[in-house]
């Protein structure tokens, strides 16, 4: 995922999409999300909410 504020890309694991009932993510889909830092120090997008 790429934030609209021109920041770097954010990783999103498919399990985060599945958690909100999405099977896939398509290019151009827009979401709000939170960033979570894993124990290994890597950041990923969680708590996805698809925007209309």
Secondary-structure element series:
HEE
Strand proportion:
25-35%
Specify the biggest β-sheet: 2 strands, antiparallel
Measured between the Cα atoms of the first and last residue, the distance is 16 Å
Q: What's the shape?
A: globular
Strand order of the largest sheet: 1-2
The total of beta strands comes to 2
Mean pLDDT: 88
Treating each run of at least 4 consecutive H or I residues as one helix, how many helices? 1
Low-pLDDT residue spans = none
Helix-strand makeup class: alpha+beta
What's the number of domains?
Answer: 1
Classify the helix fraction into a percent range.
Answer: 10-25%
- Gyration radius from CA atoms, angstroms: 11 Å
Key attributes of the depicted protein:
alpha+beta, two-stranded antiparallel ribbon, 1 helix, globular
Please give a structural write-up.
It contains 1 helix and 2 strands, in the order H-E-E. It is an alpha+beta fold. It has one domain (14-50). Strands 1-2 form a two-stranded antiparallel ribbon. The longest helix is centred in the N-terminal third of the chain and has 6 residues, at 14-19. It is globular.
């Amino acid at each position: 995922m790429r934030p609209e504020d021109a920041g770097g890309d954010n990783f999103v694991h498919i399990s985060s999409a599945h958690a909100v009932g999405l099977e896939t993510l398509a290019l151009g889909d827009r979401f709000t999300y939170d960033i979570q830092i894993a124990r290994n120090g890597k950041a990923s997008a969680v708590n996805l909410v698809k925007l209309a």
